[in-house]
Structures are given as C-alpha cells and as structure tokens.
Amino acid sequence: MDIGIQIGQKIRELRTQAGLSQAAASEALSIPLRTYQSWEKDFTTSIQKLINICNFYNYPVENLIRLFQNPGNKDKNPMESETYKQSIFHMALQGKTDDEIFSWFSSRFPNEASQINKPELFIENSILDIYHLRPTLLHGYSFNRAWKKEQEIAGMFGLPSEQIIVAESGHIAHEVVREMVIAPFGAELLIKWSEEKPGFRLGISNGFTTARILDNIPRGRIKNLIFFPMNFTSTEVDFPISSTALISSFLYKSAGYGITTDTVTEEQVFSSMLLADAAILGIGTFSREGLYERMIKSVLGKSTVMKIREMGIIGDLNYNLFDSNGSEIDFPEVVTHIGNFEKESLVKSIGLDSLKEKSEKGGKIIIAGTGRHKAESVAVALKNGYANHLVTDETIADELLK
Q1: Any idea where the domains of the chain sit in the sequence?
Q2: Which homologous superfamily is 3-139 in?
Q3: To the nearest 5 percent, what fractions of the chain are helix, strand and coil?
Q4: Which of 216, 299, 378, 380 is the most buried (most CB within 10 A)?
Q5: Could you give the CA distance from residue 51 to residue 60 in angstroms, rounded to a whole number?
Q6: Mean pLDDT, the chain, as a whole number?
C-alpha cells in the first residue's frame, strides 16, 4: 500500500479516536474540509502539515514515521535502513535534544544503542546523512523570519533592516540543523543579486553555513556568476569547507550554466576583491574550540592557540584575528594578507581593512553563521564595518539584543 494512503488511514484513525467529525477537525486545523478529506484518502502534502496534524491529535510524529516503515525492513538491523535516520532528522528539526533523541532510539533499538559510544556524533551523522541523501525532507518545513529582531539589530548597527536576516530557529538544539534552516535565506539573497547583475562577482570564504547556502542553490538557478576565493589555506583540516573546495564543488554542480572562477593566484584574488560585488564569510570565535583552532593546533601546536588567547583575540573573520575592540591582531605564523608576498603563513586571506573598504563602497559583505558563542564576534565585526549584511538565526540575534 502506498505510504500516502497509509498515513491517510492513520489520520482517520486518530480523528475517530478523538471523536471528531471531518468538518470539526478541518475547522480546528483551519483548513478547507475538502483538503482534510483528501488527506485521509492519500496524504501527499508537506512534513510540516503532518507535524501540525500530529500535534493536534497529541500523537508523536516520529511514531508515525516509524509506524510506516517498509514491512520488509522491520526485522532487519536498523543501521541498514534510513528510516531511523529520518526520525532523528525530524526530531532534531522539532528542537529535540541529543538526550531526548537518543532516549527514543534506545527504547526502539536497545541492542544497537548499547554499542554506540558517542551518541552526539551518531545523531549528527544521522542528520547529515539525511541532509545529503534526502534533502527534499527539509523542504517540508517552513521557517519564518524574526522581523522585529531584524529591525532592532539593524538599528543597533546603523544598517537597513533588509540587510539583516534572522531565521526563527532558536528552539533547535543542533547547530548543524540551524545551519540548514538559515541556508535557504542566504541562497535567496545570492540568487536575487545574481539575477540583477549578469556576471556577478562573488567572493567565498570558508564555513559550514556558507557550504549549506551554496547547497541550497538549485542547479541552473544561478547563471553567469564569477566566483573567487577569499583565502588560501595550507592544511587539510579545513579542506572540506575551504574557499577553493566550496567553489570547486559548486562549479561541478553547475557545469554548463556559465559559473566560472578566474582566480587561482594571490594576485588574481587581490584584483577580484577590488572588482567584487559581494562576499560571503564565515565567522569564528575562540571562546570554545572550533575548526580554526583545530586547524592551528594540527600544524602549529596547542601552544600557538594559547598565545592567541593570551593576546586577547576573541574571534576571526575570513581567518583574520581580532580583539574585542575589533582591532586586527598581527600573528604572521597563522595568517597574513593576500598580497603580502614576504611572509609565509598557515592562511593567506583578504584582510579586514579590505573588507571594510569594500563594505563602505557599497559592496555586499555577508556574515553567515549560527550559535550563541559567535555573537560577540558578530557584534564586533558589524560595529567596525567589516560586514554590512548578516544571515543568522535567533541564537545569535538574542545574544546581540541582550
């Protein structure tokens, strides 16, 4: 039996158990009667509407997903099926914590759960598997923008409100899921700008949120775009989300649609920045260990990270280190500016002064990221004019507004 028909039968069962007519249920859910009737016959609409129905009948949506597993898979090892991963993915989007998700998994699959040493890693990998293998599942959810918070943050930093995007996803516990929620908003911006100007020149920095924004641009949706990297790194730790890796991946996905990059040397990157229309940047912090810190440790050792903290460095933008006043801190073993050919370093990047100059001249410089721990770095970067756009969610927004 088709899954949509099975779900429809369950919805009808839940309504009957609640003692409601179809008319009463449709009125309570604020939908037309005919729409509700069609759902009980064959449910083919969005996951978000399914969640609304389950909430209305006080029925866990993860149980519904589990209920309709392929009967042929019920006695198999759950690790061989995607179904449990889909349940984890949906629970994470609803804001369930690692403890809550793993408690559900343990009750359903106790033998398998007993063999998992790191539940947090297991859950994150399950989420990422579904994100990459079944990306359309995310399309069933709708997330709004926190308009009032956008206006307040814009006022704090003297920016137009349309240059601040805050997704209402603060209830979500997992940073990786919040990145997925933010990404469509960032993708919409890039699509809009590229449509307004053929040959739009876009700088790409590193970062997981940046990677997910690029993931959310459908093949062929952007044409005649010119990419260039905002930095070069000389370590494999950052490779999966480095500027050049993200650009290469997007070029592969968009082959045939005029997406190009003509920058492979420092001189070319420096020239591209002068001509750039926009740049999208990840932002980091040294308040807790992140990818940049791990990258530094892997090449230069833990003592270098300790020196960075002792110097009062709180974060980085495009790998450039800055303190709580926004002053760029010179640390040539770690990072030097593109165009400085006298020094070798772990990272070569477009510097903060160049970002500020481009921002002041009307270039669109976007910070994209999530997580309360990054709020101070975001505030310092915006206050000092290193960026003039922000794509984030309520975790950072709420901290900025405290």
Answers
A1: 3-139, 147-400
A2: lambda repressor-like DNA-binding domains (1.10.260.40)
A3: 55, 15, 35
A4: 378
A5: 8
A6: 87
